[in-house]
Amino acid sequence: MSNRVGICGLGTVGSGLFNLFATNLAEIARKTEQVPRLVQVGCRRDHPDCDLSSVAVTRDIFDVARNPDVDILVELIGGTDTARELVLEALANGKHVVTANKALIALHGDELFRVAEQQGLAIRYEAAIAGGIPIVKAIREGLAGNRIDWIAGIINGTSNFILSQMSEPGSNLAFADVLREAQDLGYAEADPTFDVEGIDAAHKLTILASIGLGVPLQFESMYTEGIAGITAADIRFAAELGYTIKHLGIARRSGDAVELRVHPTFVARDQMLAQVNGVMNAVMVGSDAAGQTMYYGAGAGAGPTASAVMADILDICRTDTSVPNAGYVDIRSADVLPISGIRSSYYLRLEVVDKPGVMADVSSILGNHEVSIEALIQKDSRRSDAQIVIITDEVRESAMNECIAELEASAEVLNPVTRIRVASF
Ligand code: HSE
Questions:
Q1: Residue 261 counted as domain residue
Q2: What tens digit of pLDDT does each residue of 87-107 get?
Q3: Does the C-beta of 158 come closer than 6 Å to ligand 1?
Q4: Do the beta carbons of residue 346 and residue 420 sit within 8 Å?
Q5: Would residue 204 show up in a list of annotated catalytic residues for this protein?
Q6: Domain co-membership, 27 together with 71
Q7: 252 and 122 in one domain?
Q8: CA atoms of 381 and 355, how far apart (whole Å)
């Protein structure tokens, strides 16, 4: 029987999990014979929301990895270096591991899974992706009979909150102002780099792609672009054209290769993903038998993330056996298509000299690169310049790069061209 649990880390998620043990064990006992027992907590300091009087507490998290009375170590310390050492030590000592640490799995998952497999142990990480949404279970179990063709998700709540605020009707807010508001509200970290530059989403997509498409964890091959360059003008034009700008992680089969990319994306307003606002997350999966399915919920926070951690703990308690770690799939290497090789429609915004003939010149440059126009808006913005906004038909990104380079070389185009990819599902 493996049901004795040690928690390492008593921050937001750790305290949420501790309190689930305190409040929900009767509910959990209705669903499993093997009720988990919390036997030790490793934390640098106590948490004001947790009464630790009935559990053994250690200030050295490695004590938990060495404790012979712990069967399942729950890693909630974050970061990668110490977390990796802790997990390796737990595995070496015969403990199953549950973690909420997406960076740890995205960067060191291969090594950890290999060790776990050799030891006949499980590593579970439902909480690493989209907090309370059981997306790993949905893909591994609910959709197990399908070939998954693509996954597209809003998997960073901070970026979604910022874009949603910027998209409020009449807001006209700049990225930096909304980021400050998100920090004041506690949604964004003091150092928001991982969230707004797309790194957090790229970690999560690395894992989703591996379990969904059966490809190795390959964070280093991911194309990653954040939301700092999105302006109030882009948000306004998107609305005018019938779109919402969302920060998406997209993993997609493309012939024998796969696309792995995280970037701001125009999503048509009638798409379900366009309705996902604030800090909420959603993941859409395109598969051959089930078709399109979507999973929605809170991507962070004590309760939602602890809910996912507890589900993993219960799975281990129930099965008490070795569990294939990389996702019940045969992992096969597949080339990652460079971003220049993808095909997409594009939103382009050009600031141009306001004089006759400019529109014709811009159209002719697009035509030279076989870029056709699906929608176009032309606006005077100031006295001497104007904006041209275009939605193109699908074209290869390398052709679009050449087209943009020629546009930017033209004396009539005043500033770098803004380019945002348009979702095609
Ligand atoms: N910082 C993450 C987000 C939460 O904003 O979505 C945990 O993954």
A1: yes
A2: 999 999 999 999 999 999 999
A3: yes
A4: yes
A5: yes
A6: yes
A7: no
A8: 13
DSSP state of 386: E
Q: Are 336 and 210 in contact (CB under 8 A)?
A: no
Dist. CA 92–CA 140, nearest whole Å? 26
Share of the chain above pLDDT 70, in %: 96
pLDDT one-digit tens code per residue, 58-87: 999 999 999 999 999 999 999 999 999 999
Give the residue from 119, 320, 306, 103 showing the smallest Cα distance to 194. Answer: 103
pTM over 0.90: yes
Q: In CATH, what number is assigned to the domain containing residue 382?
A: 3.30.70.260
Nearest CA among 73, 26, 30, 76 for reference residue 50: 76
Beta carbon of 160 within 6 Å of any ligand 1 atom: no
Q: How many angstroms separate the CA atoms of 66 and 86, rounded? A: 10
Distance 98 CA to ligand 1 centre (A): 18
Q: Which residues contact 376 (CB under 8 A, 6 or more apart)?
A: 388, 389, 390, 391
Q: Is residue 401 one of the residues assigned to a domain?
A: yes
How many C-beta atoms lie closer than 10 Å to residue 148's C-beta? 22
Same domain, 284 and 142: yes
Domain hosting residue 165, numbered range: 136-297
pLDDT value of residue 381: 65
- Give 182-227 pLDDT, tens digit per residue: 899 888 878 899 999 999 999 999 999 999 999 999 999 999 999 9
Contact residues for 186 (Cβ-Cβ < 8 A; gap 6+):
none
pLDDT of amino acid 327: 45
For 231, residues 6+ apart whose C-beta sits below 8 A from its C-beta are 174, 175, 418
Tell me, rounded to whole angstroms, the distance of Cα 388 from its chain centroid. 32
Q: In the prediction, which pLDDT does 48 show? A: 95
**Residue 156 neighbours by CB under 8 Å, 6+ apart:** 195, 198, 200, 201, 204, 247, 281, 299
User: CA geometry: angle at 424 spanning 265 and 273, to 5°?
Assistant: 60
Please check whether residue 17 is in contact with residue 310, taking contact to mean a CB–CB distance below 8 angstroms: yes
Using most ligand atoms within 8 A of CB, pick from 158, 185, 227, 280 the residue to mutate for ligand 1.
158
The CATH number of whichever domain residue 240 belongs to comes to: 3.30.360.10
